[in-house]
Amino acid sequence: MGRRVNQLPMLLATVLALDAFVDHLREPRTGSLVRSLAWIALGLAFVERSVLAFLLLWLVALLYFCSGTFPERCAELWRRYRSAVVAHGAFLAAYLAVYVPWALNFDARTVTHRPLFAVVRDMVGTAFGSAAVGGPLHWGVSDVTQNEAQPSQLVLLLGWGVLAVLVLASAVTRRRGLRAWLLPASLLAANAGLIATSRAIYFGPQIALDYRFQTEAALALALAVGLAFLPVAGARECAEPVPATWAVDTRSVAVGSCVVFVVLATVSTDRFPLRNLTTTSPRAYYAHVEQSAREHPGTQLLDQPTPRWVWAPLAYPTNTYSHMFRPIGHGLTARTITTDDASVVDDRGVFRAIRFHPVRHQVSRLPRSCFGHTWPGTSRWRLDGPVIGIGWFLRLEYVAPATTDIEITISGERSHTRLFRGHHVLLMPAIGSYDSVVLDTPAGAEPVCLRAMSVGTISPAS
Hints:
It is built from 14 helices and 17 strands.
């Protein structure tokens, strides 16, 4: 939910930054310039994509508060708004100087090797086109994003038909009307490039069907419609009516279009997947986790990832119980290595005992209750077959005369834990490629009876 809530402050900050910046363009003052930067800074505190507000602000300045050819417009920007160019440029440079080395997690140079055109197809062709008329009306549930726009061909034709009529009308009935469409086009291009070189690398281009990756397009489209047909107070250049045999800016067309848009948007909102989740509802999942924690205080959980529809697998380890359940309390603990009565959480959020499904076993040496003992130092215990991959767990049943420190090495990965006095069962992840398990106890440790050693998978008990 948080990643979606971030979009609202971003939109609000962009709108208010644009308002302050236009005030500065009309009458350059330090106060309006500072306000524009303050609002952008507020947006960046929520989501880094707020930096695209700079693109929107300076496009408005270049297209409507300057005149002439492109070089002439740039020269006029520098001449009339030098303080704004320097202030915004310094702010952006400072932000990037911090963001690139500390937070950037993709390499923009890889864009030619990533699904840019597929992202453009999904983001612009499908999601944006249908949203222009209040769509998409139909949604798909995805493991990655939980919701994807899935408009019908009819909705897509309607959306792009309406956009084509608006663009044509701005060209035929207005002077300087076409330039307004550069605003949504530029923001869509920027967002497509960002997605193609980051998330689409891991999740595929279909992630662009999630509207949170083009939130600014809603603002840019509304601005484009207004700027394409209406005058801008204080602007050097703006749209002006020209004689035409037809128009789309009549009262009947405007009211009728708004009514249709609101109806379709209401239907799309009502059908939004996060309003109608059943077995994949994060809210219901957390409610069950909290209820289970309250009913069974002090429960020991084997630390595992939450379902992918709660948090993405690539977010590991922040998608594990130890991170995701931390605010719940009730004495809830999640450990990588557990002893005896441990539980896992099923897909409903209910605590369940662990059912172990053995696949590999230790090759027994002695036909007695203990197949072997740990002695001070290192011992290697061979399995009856190789283990390869992820999702495996080691189950070790033992009897210890005293609590003993131990180091367990699986596929080169060392884990430190304790074997407690008495008869217990240890359970821990055992991923990698290996055919044996290495146990190492310190000098002076008493021998521990090893009763059973298996590698297998786990599942919640019914």
